[in-house]
């Protein structure tokens, strides 16, 4: 992975910044067009529904962004949501108070994430294979736990809160905690040494290790955080739909990965911004919402999601190739070590010194 | 969880200990006097009963009606939709058929929200989960949308009327009756169901189990296994072969789901068990015609999904027009289907299932 | 990447040992398979009846076919998540053509399915090899696109066995000397792909690309065309899988094969193909496919709660890759030991 990265290195920052900006612009454009063209889209009522719908994807996308930037992946998140939801149902049916169940569910998520993390870091197994395995394992355990039953009689106060709005207005109760998490993750990734370490190990983890970054421990913690957030989503999902069942959030991992990649995060690691990912999530969900309101069938959405995903990588690649060809024709200075534009520098804080140090 | 990965310069152990301590503290605090299941006994919201029914009122015209099936890629619901659309056209209303492509409660919820935003007058819903849609349905009903469930119900307080395809006890009874006839009243039987969560199938299986335990006519019949084909053709197929391999003395398989029975029939047809092991259950005539013709299947049952759609549409229009409110004992006329009475819990039942065999199967096309 | 990913030519002694290890791995799978079959057979002798064995072979055939294509792709350090969607598209396409033109000869209809698969594979290959889109992203995208197309074409319709020509359906269960045709087809494909990967120039190139793409490029290998080939083969085999699916099950709707991609990846990984390329054989993948199918068939016979099925498969995947890793570390250590001995 890393070799490929290095080979394509020089042109990347600018390309990526371009896609980030493009996703944000596309998202704003979609929102504007949808508000104009689709009745009911621009209403506060719809905004409430939209936010409630995008909450789980957005929450799961936060740690997923960090993990993908670090060069790994976690396909087990949706199964973790399912298993914590099943666990929550089991404990509630067993008579435990919700105030105990919620931290336990989050803790369980963290433990499940830690298991992924152990396999990936201590045993050094490829995360793609590991998390495909735990995707099946965790979902299977959810079925073992709840089987064919559903637990539904959760405390009304809690389920009302999960669906309710601040002060009876249109802003859902879940907005402040979600905003808090978004800001926390954005700061962690873009404004702390840990964030820089994550970018560094994503670009080249051997180099990062030589530079003194504890690659394994950081990756392990990323999986723990991912699991804990998935546990939190498990709690939210259970309360939002007032139902704990083994198949909760089944298949959501693909949506989350799609949103993260659509947001301009490189699957090879080392590149991406949280802003792009948030835009990616909003774009996917609001498209879905607008198309539904416009009475377009769900099939169209499947095709659009897939196409967008491919174009998000293909277009920058093609334009870069075309650009390179143009530059070759005009006798301009060679483009390779061109300094990143200011926008690119803020958007992609790549740890260049670390990389250089890291080369043996 | 807002805890971000620890900066690596500091030792992580004290941090971990502190976190564990905090968590333990939270648990102990929470353990005394929290919200438990027992403190949640009272469930409010009796069916909205402030409106009064006017049995002589006429069906309103210009109603907007939408059908929201479990998933749109399902021939069964297409058939129901045909029936509903015919009724809505007759009543000069506008009709829409919409829904998710995967049969999950969460994606259905978004569609409920969308329909209530569009101020749809009547929603005809087949629910993927009895509880998950409730709060959204309550909101929709608060905005004057009539909610009629059909095929698969939600909790009674979340809808106006449920149009049931059949009485649950009648299905279970009919399935057992057919089975007993085909195996001569004795032997091992197994059930091939849909998903393990399927509300209908589980209710019917419960009835069958109760009947088997109590009814002396079935004393020699033993239910040895329940398998789940998840309403996927391939999985049902595999589960059928698993059942037959696991139970050498199996006399019959009962599959109370259209996908399951067709897959099981396909398997039996190509295997050495054909003619040895009886197969019955719920299936559509078009899917099963071939197997009845070649003797793999003797008799199976189903209701008419098109008639179910029609009845659901009439029931929805009746509520929206004020003819009924969903209270027990009210009556309404559903066109050619005749007069129906609302039962307890706002349930309207279509009628007993139709049995299909070599004699009558060619009279049906769905 | 495991040690097994390195070209075995590097060290003579190491090559022999590595070979032994890879054999040992296949042997391990075989032992697990035999044990499982034996235990299940002891629990219920019907498990080894001719009918039951035929069922297992038939069920393996589809997984096996797709696993062959997946192996080629994974060896070249890619992945093809779209196989199940391609299978669905091809199954529905073939069934539609046959239902609309009942007079059409079956082989011709099969060609339609193959062509659909090849076209899908070409899309994947072009986007990945020439558009330089990472395989995971590209095939995740086409997973959605191709499935969306099936939904779009099929809507709520379902093609049932009654609409398909008798000859086509008979082909789904027909057998030669007691062995199902479908399984024989899958085995023929397996041998062809095995031979291709082992001896053919382009096949060896895939291992080289998967081991170290940059080195392969510097060595002058035509990387894009090799990758394109791998995805076209994977797509075509998924297309063939669709035809066989339609023949076998008779009932085809928009969800045919839904979610199957994970089973295929699981079979390949359990079979010892390294997920990051460069190592593994198609025969291992075939064993993996067989083992997973036998597990799926054995659990209900053993009376294991069906809810455990998925958990068991997940645990098996993890165990397989963890075992690989441990064995690889051992080998690396012992190789180092040997080299030291050599120096003396």
TrEMBL record, chain A:
Keyword terms of this UniProt record: Cell inner membrane, Cell membrane, Membrane, Transmembrane, Transmembrane helix, Transport
Membrane topology: Multi-pass membrane protein
Compositional bias annotation for Pro residues: 331-342
Pfam families noted in UniProt: BPD_transp_2 (PF02653)
InterPro entries (UniProt xref): ABC_transp_permease (IPR001851)
GO CC annotation: plasma membrane
Principal location class: membrane
Location in or out of the cell: Cell membrane
Spans traversing the lipid bilayer: 46-68, 101-125, 175-199, 220-239, 275-294, 300-322
Signal peptide from the UniProt entry: none
One function term, GO molecular function aspect: transmembrane transporter activity
Name of this protein: Autoinducer 2 import system permease protein LsrD
Organism encoding this protein: Streptomyces triticirhizae
Native organism taxonomy: Bacteria, Bacillati, Actinomycetota, Actinomycetes, Kitasatosporales
UniProtKB/TrEMBL annotation, chain B:
Record domain Periplasmic binding protein: where: 65-322
Pfam family, one: Peripla_BP_4
Single GO MF annotation: carbohydrate binding
Gene Ontology CC annotations of this record: outer membrane-bounded periplasmic space
Cited InterPro entries: Bact_Solute-Bind_Prot2, Peripla_BP_I, RhaS, SBP_2_dom
Keyword Signal included in the entry's annotation: yes
Entry protein name: Rhamnose ABC transporter substrate-binding protein
Any one Gene Ontology BP term: rhamnose transmembrane transport
Location of region: Disordered: 33-55
Originating organism: Streptomyces triticirhizae
Superkingdom classification of source: Bacteria
SUPFAM superfamilies named among the record's database cross-references: Periplasmic binding protein-like I
PROSITE patterns noted in UniProt: PROKAR_LIPOPROTEIN
Compartment list: Cell envelope
Leader peptide range in chain numbering: 1-33
Record keywords, A-Z: Signal
Automatic annotation (TrEMBL), chain C:
Highest taxon above the source species: Bacteria
Keywords recorded for this protein, A-Z: Cell inner membrane, Cell membrane, Membrane, Transmembrane, Transmembrane helix, Transport
Localization (cell): Cell membrane
Organism whose genome encodes this protein: Streptomyces triticirhizae
Subunit-structure text: The complex is composed of two ATP-binding proteins (LsrA), two transmembrane proteins (LsrC and LsrD) and a solute-binding protein (LsrB).
An example Gene Ontology CC term for this record: plasma membrane
UniProt topology in membrane: Multi-pass membrane protein
Molecular function terms, GO-annotated: transmembrane transporter activity
Record flagged with keyword Membrane: yes
Transmembrane residue ranges: 20-44, 56-75, 81-99, 106-129, 135-155, 176-197, 228-250, 262-295, 307-328
Listed InterPro entries: ABC_transp_permease (IPR001851)
The name this protein goes by in its record: Autoinducer 2 import system permease protein LsrC
Summary of the function given for this chain in its UniProt record: Part of the ABC transporter complex LsrABCD involved in autoinducer 2 (AI-2) import. Probably responsible for the translocation of the substrate across the membrane.
